[in-house]
Write a structure and sequence with these properties.
The protein is of the alpha/beta class and 335 residues long. The chain has one domain: Aldolase class I (TIM Barrel, Alpha-Beta Barrel), CATH 3.20.20.70. Strands 7-8-9-6-5-4-3-2-1-10-11-12 form a 12-stranded mixed beta sheet. Strand 8 and strand 9 form a beta hairpin. Helix 1 packs parallel to helix 2, helix 1 crosses helix 9 and helix 2 runs parallel beside helix 3. It is globular, with a radius of gyration of 19 Å.
């Protein structure tokens, strides 16, 4: 089934946030001064159960979803995540099942996740400079912990592995080339992400953004690059190959070169709301239907109606005014 929104964009990708909690306090996502000891996270009975998540996912695959990415918060802080992976993996028609994680708990869980049916992982690592990285995650976790997680993922067969790095001017932009060099030739793809105005707590300012073009130029000066074709419609990262054939990098340019026109992603929040845009302010309640006795057909009709009505293109319309509007936090619905 092909389901399209008002701008003709098909539904292909589902991102499932399984928790709003995280064991990091990254300054660009969950700053400690906001997400401190008194912050009211979701209660356990407010979260969708794995059974409920699987039911929604099954309906969405029937509606055209081919790829599911599990996110958070930090998804690996949710207990027995491998059980959800095993449930999702057997949904007929699902082609790709992946996970985004900060990597701090990956070394302990990679093998079990792979055995449950997870296909690949994306790991966040903003710098190889240990002092810079510890300052950015603000909980004192060192680079080595994340590198151990990446290594465990590789040993478990969770390939291809991608590494995501959010680049913020004056914070970690001076470490971009080192990160690219470290993974060059390993088969691991580093994707550099422009600092985005997701949510309302990360103190975003345009002058903090290092553009994708600047990032490519930095790396190209030392390790020559050439553009590569996108793998598929809706791929978020622009691909760049090393001219010596030793791999590639990606840049995600939501600020400087928006890609709303090809966005095929729907997001499910931990408490069961559907968001049609990463920068959305309000979701569409699905938990009420799930717990109110709705049939699969009723779920299907509701979800299809949400997608058909979709006309979001925040990044293409972004202005000084819209950038300050209320938006759901990145830590709540993932990237």
């Amino acid at each position: 089934m092909t389901l399209s929104d008002r701008l003709g964009r098909p539904l292909r990708d589902l991102r499932i946030s399984v928790t709003d909690r995280c064991n990091f306090r990254c300054v660009y996502c969950m700053p400690r001064e906001v997400f401190g000891p008194g912050y009211a996270f979701l209660k356990r009975d407010e979260l969708l159960t794995y059974e409920e998540i699987t039911r929604v996912a099954r309906v969405l695959v029937e509606l055209g979803v081919e790829k599911i990415r599990i996110t958070g918060g930090e998804p690996l802080v949710r207990r027995d995540l491998h059980e959800l992976v095993a449930r999702l993996r057997v949904i007929p028609g699902l082609r790709d099942l992946t996970l985004t994680t900060n990597g701090s708990l990956l070394a302990q869980q990679a093998k079990r996740l792979a055995e449950a049916g997870l296909q690949r992982v994306t790991v966040s690592l903003d710098s190889l400079d240990d002092a810079v990285f510890r300052a950015m995650n603000d909980v004192g976790v060192g680079v080595e912990t994340v590198l151990e997680g990446i290594s465990a993922a590789g040993e478990a067969g969770l390939w291809p592995i991608k590494v995501n790095a959010v680049v913020k001017r004056g914070v970690n932009d001076h470490t971009v080339v080192d990160l690219a060099r470290y993974f060059k030739g390993t088969g691991i793809i580093v994707r550099f992400i422009e600092f985005m105005d997701v949510g309302a707590t990360n103190g975003w300012k345009l002058e903090h953004v290092v553009t994708g073009r600047e990032i490519v130029e930095m790396i190209d000066r030392e390790m020559p690059l050439e553009p590569a074709e996108a793998n598929y419609r809706g791929e978020v990262a622009q691909r760049w190959r090393y001219r010596d054939g030793s791999g590639e990098i990606g840049v995600i340019t939501s600020i400087s070169q928006p890609f709303c026109g090809d966005c095929t992603r729907l997001r499910l929040s931990p408490e069961g709301e559907l968001f049609t845009c990463l920068f959305g302010a309000k979701g569409h309640d699905i938990r009420g239907l799930l717990r109110g006795g709705a049939s699969d057909e009723e779920l299907r009709e509701r979800i299809a109606a949400v997608w058909r009505a979709r006309e979001d293109r925040y990044s293409e319309l972004r202005t000084a005014e819209t950038a300050g509007l209320p938006k759901v936090e990145m830590s709540h619905i993932g990237g």
